[in-house]
Design brief:
- The structure holds 2 protein chains of 2 kinds.
- Chain A is an alpha+beta fold.
- Chain A has one domain.
- In chain A, 31% of the residues lie in helices and 15% in strands.
- In chain A, the strands form 3 sheets. A 4-stranded antiparallel sheet of chain A has the order 3-2-7-8, with no helix packed on it.
- In chain A, strand 2 and strand 3 form a beta hairpin.
- Chain B is mainly alpha-helical.
- Helix content of chain B is 42%, strand content 10%.
- Chain B has 9 helices and 10 strands.
- In chain B, the strands form 4 sheets. A 3-stranded antiparallel sheet of chain B has the order 1-2-3.
- In chain B, a hairpin with a 4-residue loop joins strand 9 and strand 10.
- The chains are: A alpha+beta, B mainly alpha.
- Chains A and B meet through strand 1, strand 5 and helix 6 of A and helix 4, strand 4, strand 5, strand 6 and helix 9 of B.
- Chain A: Keywords: Endoplasmic reticulum, Membrane.
- Chain A: This is Ras modification protein ERF4.
- Chain A: One of its GO terms (cellular component) is endoplasmic reticulum membrane.
- Chain A: InterPro entries: Golgin_A_7/ERF4 (IPR019383), Ras_palmitoyltransferase (IPR051371).
Chain lengths: 250, 344
């Protein structure tokens, strides 16, 4: 996260998260106080802007935002396939005084993933966890980049889900594809009526692309249902981030 | 329809009349129906959008134009389009149609390209340039949705090729992390995906969702002018006493020649800029001037979008997928929708 290191290669991180030192301790949620930098909370989940303001859903849910990445392509949306907290420049607990063993070992786990090693039994025991440390904005947060998603999905499950979304996005948004150029040609020939015709030709399930089905399948899976986890369609966030709706952590 | 009422002063609104609703459907500018009643049918998005952006929406949110009463340049463009059509229809087409001699096909082609130009002009000028919905990346609720310090930074992320860096900025007005190439247009007051430029002649932004219409309009405008000149030139050539027999043809040739210059120059720039994978905005930032006249278009070494092949660059930028409308105007959302909310 340090920007003053000019010669170092730029590392990827979740630019949605931020740190907060003025927060309340878990034992005294009504009395926020200033904390040292080393104990800063990392804000990893955000208000659910996909639910109407003031609604029951808004009050009881939060979203974890998976950032866009640009190392694959600049020309179509692509989301980070690393579970939040495992990005190369994620904030880890290694230099924090009160860190517990779980979070201390995260760096080694990220390194193991980067090296292509699969998490074995021993690795799974060292999975990064979301451990609440303080209260901010009426919500609990931990001191590392690990979001509540870390307690719901394994890095492999997360990678698999986001990868599938990315594959669909590439198919939908890649400019250099037969589908796109045939669409442009047909639009020219039909005075721009083609998108409208195509929409009605698809008929039965308007707007049902592979991505819609993929997200529906994901949300209907027991893994998501049991944990009240909802993958929101990237269209809902204008393809700016991939939002996972979670129950407000306690 | 234009009354401004803050939620605190009018908690109980009166029901809008049918006439008010019809006027609102025709033109919604800074429209306010008062505080929506949660039990009401949700409003279409264009009504709150006409408040949070600078757009005025016409025909129930189907068309849009920026509220700008000082410079109605889009009307000037319409005039430049319509005048030659009227003159051709009155002075050129009837004799050409009577005499034939190959001028009929030239006439038909002129009308065809004129219609295409007008259609693309309307689509580019009144369509969605790729506006992004607001508040997608709200950070927190407390202290009036205060932005954290980190959101003021320009974030550097790895780019597609080794060594390239992509910069991301947070839009403090729209409250979202802008993807590269998206920019906030202060005239339209919204963030536009792959923002090319704000076009005063269209009175709209040119961005991801109308760039192809803009380019098509330039191309067909050039073709229309060329066909206008060809039509009138042929008329002039066949007139026994030359210009004395066909004064309007001379006028139209001059009109066509002048009207062709600007679209042709603009299209030339867009070919050169797209071949080096630059949007107008990026190019103007690179040369550090708002006036690119007589400046050679060069590639930018730090441009992470550049593929190194001019054809590939051109196809990528000109054939960019339009994608769905991000900030919908016709969808109904329940009161309390964040994407159209005005936050402090």
């Amino acid at each position: 996260m340090d920007s003053d290191a000019v010669d170092d290669p730029v590392l990827f991180f979740n630019y949605h998260e931020f740190s907060e030192t003025f927060y309340a301790d878990l034992g005294a949620p009504g009395a926020p106080r200033e904390h040292p930098e080393t104990e800063a909370l990392v804000i990893t989940h955000f208000p659910n802007v996909h639910a109407p303001r003031g609604s029951q859903l808004y009050r009881t849910t939060r979203v974890v935002r998976v950032p866009r990445r640009f190392d694959i392509s600049m020309h179509y949306p692509n989301f980070s396939e690393q579970l939040p907290g495992l990005e190369p420049a994620a904030i880890v607990a290694e230099d924090k005084g009160d860190s517990n063993d779980d979070s201390r070992s995260m760096m080694s786990f990220a390194d193991a993933l980067a090296a292509g090693q699969h998490a074995d039994g021993a690795g799974k025991a060292r999975l990064p966890r979301f451990i609440p440390r303080g209260v901010h904005d009426g919500q609990v947060f931990g001191c590392t980049s690990a979001s509540p998603l870390s307690n719901m999905l394994t890095p492999e499950q997360f990678q698999q889900i986001v990868h599938e979304v990315n594959v669909h996005l590439e198919r939908e948004f890649r400019a250099l594809s037969w589908r796109n150029w045939a669409g442009i040609l047909l639009s020219v020939l039909t005075f721009g009526l083609w998108p409208w015709v195509a929409k009605h030709l698809r008929g039965a399930a308007p707007g049902q692309s592979g991505l819609d089905a993929c997200i529906e399948r994901c949300n209907a899976s027991p893994l998501f249902m049991q944990q009240h986890l909802v993958l929101l369609h990237p269209r809902d966030s204008a393809y700016l981030s991939l939002d996972f709706q979670i129950a407000s952590p306690t | 329809m234009r009354r401004r009422s803050s939620p605190s002063t009018s908690p109980h609104r009166t029901e809008p009349s049918r006439l008010q609703l019809l006027l609102l459907w025709l033109v919604a500018a800074d429209a306010d129906l008062g505080v929506p009643d949660p039990s009401d049918t949700p409003q279409r998005d264009y009504i709150p959008l006409s408040r949070v952006t600078n757009y005025a929406f016409l025909l129930g949110g189907r068309l849009r134009t920026v509220r700008d009463r000082r410079r109605p340049l889009a009307l000037a463009v319409l005039l430049v389009l319509v005048v030659p059509l009227v003159l051709v229809s009155v002075f050129e087409t009837p004799p050409a149609w009577r005499k034939g001699q190959g001028r009929r096909s030239l006439n038909v082609l002129f009308y065809y390209f004129w219609c295409v130009t007008l259609g693309l002009f309307v689509r580019a000028a009144t369509g969605d340039p790729g506006c992004l919905p607001r508040n997608m990346h709200l950070a927190q609720e407390q202290r009036g949705f205060q932005l954290p310090q980190e959101y003021y930074n320009v974030v550097q992320l790895p780019g597609p090729r080794a060594g390239t860096v992509v910069q991301a900025k947070y839009c403090r007005t729209c409250r979202l992390w802008r993807p590269p190439r998206a920019a906030h247009c202060s005239t339209c007051n919204c963030c536009v995906a792959v923002h090319d430029h704000h076009c005063v002649w269209l009175n709209n932004c040119v961005g991801r969702r109308n760039y192809r219409y803009f380019l098509g309009m330039l191309g067909s405008a050039i073709a229309t002018c060329a066909l206008l000149i060809a039509n009138c030139g042929e008329h002039l050539r066949r007139a026994p006493r030359g210009a004395r027999d066909a004064p309007v043809a001379v006028l139209l040739i001059a009109w066509g020649g002048l009207a062709m210059v600007y679209p042709a120059a603009l299209l030339g720039y867009h070919v050169a800029m797209a071949a080096t994978q630059q949007t107008t905005r990026e190019y103007l930032a690179q040369i550090g001037s708002r006036n690119p006249v007589l400046t050679r278009v060069r590639g930018n070494k730090s441009n992470a979008c550049d593929t190194g092949s001019a054809w590939r660059n051109l196809a990528l930028l000109w054939g960019e997928v339009r994608g769905p409308e991000m900030q919908t105007t016709r969808t109904r959302h329940a009161p309390g929708d964040w994407a159209t909310a005005q936050l402090p």
